[in-house]
Amino acid sequence: MEKTLKIINQMRRKKVIADYAIGGAVATIFYVEPILTYDLDIFIFLPQSPTGLITLSPIYEFAKSRGYQTSHEHIIIEGVPVQFIPAYNPLVEEAITESKEIKYKKIKTKVLKMEHLLAIMLQTDRPKDRARITQLMDETKINMKNFLTILKRHNLMNKWHEFQRRFYDK
């Protein structure tokens, strides 16, 4: 993954992407015990296009020019399937903006903060997200004040209360 992150940082330096943060299962690994995952989710801001349309073409062109192959929605970068996910709502935009810089081995990278990661999982609400929320809540220290503030700001308090009823009030 170190080589993959080098390439993603290179994409940012060359303005193929404006900014990014690691999300999904790989982001979870920075906070709890490793879990099985297939790919690396990279939430991104794209540079403004002259037309205002969102296009991933520059990312695919960059990858192709360096010999990287695609597989469905993934670009295989240094052996790692990477899914580039443009910021699709205000929560994800905020999560990228407020992500934290870390070092993975010798590479500087950015990862979503725990509280944003949880909020995105809650919003997405897939079975694997619900399982990861439970794992994160059980195994890590969450800044609950910050988490609840994020949930309120993005109208997710009802979802949070429902999640708590389903998984913790048994």
Straight-line distance between termini: 39 Å
Instruction: Please state the structural category.
Output: alpha+beta
**Strand and helix order:** HEHEHEEEHEEHHHH
Q: What integer value in Å does the Rg equal? A: 17 Å
Q: How many domains, in number, for the residues?
A: 2
**So how many helices?**
8
Coarse shape? globular
The side-by-side strand order for the widest beta sheet comes to 1-2-5-4-3
What's the CATH topology label of the largest domain? Beta Polymerase, domain 2
Chain-averaged pLDDT: 92
Largest sheet: 5 strands, mixed
Tally of strands = 7
CATH class categorisation of the largest domain:
Alpha Beta
What is the percentage of strand-forming residues?
A: 15-25%
Q: Helix fraction?
A: 40-55%
CATH architecture of the largest domain: 2-Layer Sandwich
**Low-confidence regions:** none
What brief labels describe this structure?
five-stranded mixed beta sheet; alpha+beta; 170 residues; single chain; Beta Polymerase, domain 2; two-stranded antiparallel ribbon
Would you kindly provide a written description of the structure presented here, covering whatever features stand out?
The chain is an alpha+beta fold and 170 residues long. The protein is 47% helix and 21% strand. Strand 6 (100-104) and strand 7 form a beta hairpin. It is globular and about 55 Å long.
